[in-house]
Each structure stands twice: as C-alpha cells, then as structure tokens.
Amino acid sequence: MTVYVPRDSAARSVGADQVAERIARETRVVRNGSRGMLWLEPLVEVETPAGRVAYGPVTPDDVEDLLASGLLDGAPHRLCLGPTEEIAWLRDQTRVTFARVGVIDPVSPPDYTAHGGLAGLRRALSLTPEQVVAEVTDSGLRGRGGAGFPAGIKWKTVLGAASEPKFVCCNADEGDSGTFADRMLMEGDPFTLIEGMTIAAWAVGASEGYIYVRSEYPDAVATLRAAIDAAYARGWLGKRVLDHDFAFDLFVRVGGGAYICGEETSMLESLEGKRGMVRAKPPIPALEGLFGKPTVVNNVLTLGSVPMILADGAEAFAELGVGHSRGTQVFQLGGNIARGGIVETAFGITLGELVEGYGGGTRSGRPVRAVQVGGPLGAYLPTSRFDLPMDYEEFAAAGAMVGHGGVVVFDDTVDMAGQARFAMEFCAAESCGKCTPCRIGAVRGVEVIDRIVAGENRGANLKLLNDLCHLMTEGSLCAMGGLTPMPVRSALTHFPGDFGATTEERP
C-alpha cells in the first residue's frame, strides 16, 4: 500500500511534512510533487486497485480520522475528492511538461523511466545534432520565459558557431510575481529538466550546462542536486551519456536574489561571478554568451518541453495550440483567486476560461476588476477582455504579453493608480542601473504618477508620463525598463478614473 504526500514547497508550507510523518507510521509514503491544485494542499493520494484516490486539504489533525475511516482502502470521507485523474481541474488539462509532476517520486530514476522518461534523449542520440535542431524548430517551440523567441533558431545559431567550448544555461531565476511553474517542475520532476538540457547539449555540441536557480528556492536546489547525482550514477550525465560518445556535465548555481538576473545576459554575468548587469546586444549570447562562448539560454519550461518533442515528434507538439503559438503553456493562477495553481493546456484558451473557469473567480467573493498577465511588467486587463485568447500574437495586438504565464487576479477594491505606481517603483528598485532610461525614468515615473493622482496640472503630467513611457520603451537596454510602461499604460487605458483622469485626458 502506497500513499503519496507532496514534498513541494507550497504543500510543505501548509503542513505536508507533518501529514506525511503521521501516515508513515502506518504505511509506505512516497513524497511526490504537487498536482498543482494549491487550494487543496496538502493533497494526499492513496494507491488502490482502481487507481489513485485523492483527499484534501488534509491537516495533521485529520490523519487519525482518515486512517480510521479507511484511507488506505480509498474509502469515502468528507475530504475525499474521488479518483485523482477525474478531478475536473486535472481531467480537462493537456499536461505535457507537467505530465509526471505529482505522479512520480521526483528523485527516483526508476520512477522516471517507468513513466516515459529518457525516451526523448534516447531518440535524440539516434539522430544527428542537425536533425534534433530541425525537430525542435518544426515543433514551433518558443521560449516560455517571456520573450517567445523560437527555440530552434537559437539552437541552430549555437550549433553553427565555430567557437568552443559551448554551453547550455537554464535560467531558473523565476522572479515574476504570480509565477511558480519553474519551481514546481524542478521540485516535482527534475529529471525532465536534466533530460531537456542534455538533449540541447547534444543538439548544439555543448559540453557543460548550468542551472541558475534563485536563492529563494532552497527545496528546488536540493532536489535538483539530488537528481543530478542520481543521473551521474546511472550514466545519464558524465563522460559517456547513455553509453554514447557524448560527454555532458551539469551544475547548479544559486543566484543572489536579483530580479534583473531573469534577463539572460544579466544571468550570464552573475554566472561568471560578476554583478548581474545587462549586456548590450549584439553580440547575442548564442554567439558570445557564458565566458564569451556560444551559449543556449532557455528557461525551465522551454527546456522541460523538449523531451516530449523528441519522444513523440515535432508534429505531435505542433498540433497543440493556435497560429504561431504551438504546444502548451503552463499558466499559473495567483493573487485574489478562489482556486490558485497550475493549469497546463494548449495555447488558445481564453483569459476568462482561466480566471472564471479554472480559478473560480476571486477568493474574496467580490467581482474581478483586473487581471495582470505576464508578471509585474505585464499589462492589466479588465473583465471586458476575458474573451482574449492566450497566445503570443493576440496578446501583443492587445498591448499585453503572455510572458511566463503568470495570471494575477484583483477584485474591485484594487487601486489601479497604485498598481501603476508600483510598476515604476518596482523598476526603480530592481534596475541594474546600467542604462539611464530605466535607472532614472522609473524614479521620475513614480513622481509623475504621484502628481497626477494629486491633481497637479493633470493634463500636462499625463502627457509627460506618456513621453516618459515612450522613452523607456524605446531607449532601455533590456525588458526591465522597456516593459515597465506596459502596466502603466494599460492601467491608464482601462482604468482612467483611478487617476482622476477622464477618457479624453489619458495618454
């Protein structure tokens, strides 16, 4: 008899360790990743002849009653949610990157291979590097870190670069508000990331890889290191990967907590032991990246999508999604929301289906007023835009971005002028300081918004704010300053009354 209790940080924060300890006195407990239904954590699953049965949320004080009521047999109980796979939240998703998260023991190689792990790497090693790059290109995979740049083009550039050695770097500095998918994948299925990076290394001719993890993720760091040690022990990493003439070494590096290191060149600077500051481009990292050598830089979800692409073929991945947004995205529902967590589904689902359908509206029970998509530099969208499909092009046309897939919900008590001010304040605090539009513009932005809200010469200050936003967008070295105007402009466009501005006055 096996009972599954998550080891995910979110579940542990609400008592999962204590729940697991009490159940372990009676039967075998496996610490899996979270299924992503965070409002039900700790979620306990029991293996039965008919499949897993879920219970949740389970507190340590519930364990004795659950065991007495027949938990180990999957018996009915007030906390019983029925068969896990039939829970509507999970049943209607299309899990690709997260297919094994919550299902397996994250640091068990046998569990990983028993659920399809390494199929992608084995197939990749049977192909030439050029064929692997073509497969990734044909799949339509785009960077899930926010920019949406085609992964295959980046890999092809590194493959064609003449300089040696080459590197593969995973940016796991997940700093956007309302995002936690990278952490959950690293904690719940680290071998998927390891496999994806190894495939990338074979495809471009890299010999070393680095996973750059933010210091606020100690559980992810520990899980990754344990998984990497296990991978070396089994020949999945090292001098002869899967007994092929291919060597790849992988390391974890912990960042110092700077938001700007989510930007690829700042991350590379930090990896080199320098202060995290943006590099001017060109040269691009694909040609002169880590230590000046050709480097693939992708985020966790991008690299985590690669094993499925190689295992099932580019066409299977490309069949999911819409337009130029192919495959799935892992959307993260947070903020003032009744049912927060992970929703992995094909691009094309609407914003309203995520917030009202999966999320169940606000946790406070008040009406939704605004939703910010894409992190602290993403646009604020009103409920009138709930019909907007979640894909790169549709969002760009609406003056917004999908970004890393974070969806943060606000009810009707939110002050949107305050949210716009926060965007500028956040930029001022997190700017690396290298370029003037970002370093100085954000400080001036806070001051101008304060004057607008105070009613000081509102028309002139609104014009000044618009000019400042234009300057920051066009003149900043990276997306930190370049995207800060997006939440400000969207708040002004959709919620002008919060600034005391009429529709005619807004920029």
Question: In short, what is this structure?
Answer:
This is Formate dehydrogenase iron-sulfur subunit. Pfam families: Complex1_51K, NADH_4Fe-4S. With 507 residues, the chain is α/β, with parallel strands linked by helices.
Total of helices = 22
Overall pLDDT metric: 94
Approximate helicity band: 25-40%
Would you count the extended β strands for me? 16
Q: In whole angstroms, how far apart are the ends?
A: 64 Å
Number of domains: 4
Order of strands, main sheet, comes to 2-1-3-4-5
Q: Based on CA inertia axes, which overall geometry fits?
A: globular
Main sheet makeup: 5 strands, mixed
What does this 3D model show about the protein?
GO terms for molecular function: 4 iron, 4 sulfur cluster binding; FMN binding; metal ion binding; NADH dehydrogenase (ubiquinone) activity. This protein is an alpha/beta fold and 507 residues long. The chain folds into four domains: 2-91, 3-Layer(aba) Sandwich (Glutaredoxin), CATH 3.40.30; 109-318, NADH-ubiquinone oxidoreductase 51kDa subunit (Rossmann fold), CATH 3.40.50; 321-411, Roll (Ubiquitin-like (UB roll)), CATH 3.10.20; 416-499, NADH-ubiquinone oxidoreductase 51kDa subunit, iron-sulphur binding domain (de novo design (two linked rop proteins)), CATH 1.20.1440.230. The chain contains 22 helices and 16 strands. A five-stranded mixed sheet has the order 2-1-3-4-5, with no helix packed on it. A hairpin with a 5-residue loop joins β12 (328-335) and β13 (341-346). α7 (129-139) packs antiparallel against α8 (151-160), α17 (416-430) runs antiparallel to α19 (441-453) and α19 packs antiparallel against α20 (458-475). The relative contact order is 0.10.
